[in-house]
Amino acid sequence: MLNNQYWYTAKGNNSDTVLSTRIRFARNLKGYPFPQVLDTAQKKQLCEEVKNALFASSAFADFQYIEMEQLNDVEAVSLLERHLISFEFAGNRAGKALILSPDESVSIMLCEEDHIRIQVIKSGLDFEQTYAAADNIDNLLDESLAYAFDERLGYLTACPTNLGTGMRASVMLHLPSLQESGAMQRISAGLAKIGLTIRGFYGESSEPEGCIYQLSNQVTLGLSEKSAIDNLRNISVQIIEQEREARAGYIKNELIEDKIWRSYAMLKYARLLSNTEFMKYLSNVRLGAASGILPNLQPEQLSELMIKNQPAMLISASKRNISPRECDILRAAEVRKAFAIEN
Amino acid sequence: MLCDICKQNEATNHYKKIVNDKISEAHLCNECAKTHGLPSPLTGLSFDFGNLLSGFFDLPQLGNPQSKAELPKCPACSTDFAQIAKTGRVGCAQCYDVFDEQLLPSIRRIHGDTMHLGKLPKSAGKQARVKAELISLKEELQEAIRVQEFEKAAELRDKINGLEGGAENA
Question: Going by C-beta distance under 8 Å and a sequence separation of 6 or more, which residues neighbour residue A212?
Answer without folding.
Answer: A19, A172, A173, A174, A175, A200, A201, A283
